[in-house]
Amino acid sequence: MKVFKFGGASVSTVERIMNVAAILQSYQEEPLLVVISAMGKTTNALEKVVAAFYAREKDQALELFQVIKQQHFEIAASLQEKAGHPGGETNITYLSDFFTEVEWLLHDKPVRDYDYYYDQVVCIGELLSTAIVSHYLNVIGLSNALIDVRDIIRTDNAFRDARINWKVTEEKVHERILPLFQLNQMVITQGFIGSTDENESTTLGREGSDYTAAVFANLLNAKELTIWKDVQGVMNADPKLYAAATWIPDLNYQEVIEMAYYGAQVIHPNTIKPLQNKNIPLQVRSFIHPGDAGTCIHNQKIRHLPPIIVYKNNQVLVEMKSKDYSFVSEGLTAAVYQIFESLKFKPNLTQSAAISVLCVVDEHPEKVEELALQATTHFEVTLKRNLHLLTIRHYNEQVLEELIKDATIVLKQQTPETIQVLIDHVK
Ligand code: ASP
Ligand code: MG
After folding, report:
1. Any idea which ligand is nearest the CA of 265?
2. Closest alpha carbon to 238 in 329, 180, 163, 309
3. Measured between alpha carbons, how far is residue 288 from residues 6, 9, 18, 182, 347 in Å?
4. Full-model pTM
């Protein structure tokens, strides 16, 4: 058994969906669970629908939704045509229920909180994309079963940031997914979404499909998980920011977790744990060049990694200085962490000195203001905004030199393996 995950970019057009079909065609020897994201930027578009609905702009919400509906109809019709079954958009009946569900909701007035509606509307993106792809594959003879992941992934009701109930989910995988594999080589389902005990839809946080795929790999004891992306694999830097960026053929779980922690947008950070726990390798491969090797992420030690460069932009330096020159004691340090905890906010870097504590945080305006406000009980607080946190793992002087020349260093922290510098602008 293998698990595949195809992201939004891999199914954003008719041609790309056909390309996914071609990839799947070459993997017909063993059972495959395929997780597919919403097409292209559909999730962003659906977010706008929810915002309009919640602002009580019903007409605008319906109009925005109409555009999404039309795009999906067109893609579905065009795929049907490519498969030699013309009939136009009127023939696409299998999507109607999804549309009706959302349209009904949009006709109501919001009475519950925003996050609840967000999940009820946004989940439709993945339901549509998987229905379209599954249907197309069946038409061209790649037979598969489609399952609504909301019948499998059970979560709590923390809408937009739901936690998976592993026990119930595992039972559902055994009850519902395994039997499907007795009749089908391929099962298609959604990432990113789940449902509560009350059958309300939930989402796991943006970009959560990687995580869903890892959960399935874990529960199905898969041989491996492959995430198909529009890049060759994991690079050691963003090629847009660092021309000498190179592809890394081999990485281990720990390195990827560290990269994600420092802000690299490689893979959703939650993805690694379910894989590591069962020692399941993760392949990151290109859907554009499916013959290329990609990056393999596993449990083994790796020597010789190139410098790995990660930028986090929009950083704020929060400088907290004790008011009366008293030393920063455990009590004061604990007070700082308590504030962070109460705000559900995490510093990206901290440094303490005799009478001050420095924290670097993401620019999250309300949280930053609240943090500063609460900290003034104990400290004199100053904020420095618009900074960039550059992290280099496995650094060498030459790379560091090159990346910080012309920048002013505001703060620096280093271990033999990792250096972090807070700078005022990116080269
Ligand atoms: N469609 C969702 C998003 O764009 C989930 C995912 O793609 O992983 O955030
Ligand atoms: Mg995505």
Report:
1. 2
2. 309
3. 12, 10, 12, 31, 37
4. 0.89
205 alpha carbon, closest ligand: 1
CA-CA distances (angstroms) from residue 270 to 207, 260, 266, 370, 388? 10, 9, 12, 27, 24
pLDDT for res 102: 97
Q: What is the CA radius of gyration of the chain?
A: 24
Q: Sign of the C-alpha dihedral, residues 252, 239, 10, 258?
A: positive
79: left (phi over 0), alpha (psi -120 to 50) or beta: alpha
Tell me the C-alpha distance between 253 and 302, whole Å: 11
Q: Ligand 1, residue 207: give the atom nearest the CA.
A: 8
Inter-residue contact 215 to 268 (CB < 8 Å): no
Cα-Cα-Cα-Cα dihedral sign, residues 158, 159, 161, 166: positive
Nearest to 255 by CA among 208, 307, 218: 307
- pLDDT 10s digits, 73-86: 999 999 999 998 87
Taking CA atoms only, the protein residue closest to ligand 1 atom 8 is 207
Give the CA distances from residue 165 to residues 91, 170, 203, in Å, rounded to whole numbers and listed in that order.
39, 9, 13
Q: By C-alpha distance, which of 238, 262, 253, 259 is closest to 347?
A: 262
User: Residue 124 belongs to what H/E stretch?
Assistant: helix 124-139
Q: Whose CA is nearest to atom 2 of ligand 1?
A: 207
How far apart CA 147 and CA 84 sit, in angstroms, is 25
Ligand showing the shortest atom-to-Cα distance for residue 46: 1
Q: What is the pLDDT of residue 265?
A: 82
Q: How far is CA 20 from CA 27, 137, 180, 272, 285, in A?
A: 11, 10, 21, 24, 13
Q: Checking DSSP bridges between strand 418-423 and strand 409-414, what pairing results, if any? A: antiparallel
CA–CA gap between residue 391 and residue 85 (Å, rounded): 53
Backbone angles phi, psi at 25, to 5 degrees: -55, -35
Which ligand 1 atom is nearest residue 210's CA?
Answer: 8
Hey, what are 378's tokens?
Answer: 């104990």
Q: Is 389 helix (H, G, I), strand (E, B) or coil?
A: strand
Kindly list the protein residues that place their beta carbon closer than 5 angstroms to ligand 2, a single-atom ion.
Answer: 7-8, 37
- Please give the full DSSP string across 270-326, using - where no structure is assigned: GGHHHHHTTT--EEEEESSSTTS--EEEESS----PPPEEEEEEEEEEEEEEETTS-
For 129, the token pair is 């994309």
Lining ligand 1 with CB less than 6 A are 7-8, 37-38, 43, 125, 191-192, 206-209
The parts of the chain modelled with pLDDT lower than 50 are none
**Ligand 2 centroid from CA 192, angstroms:** 9
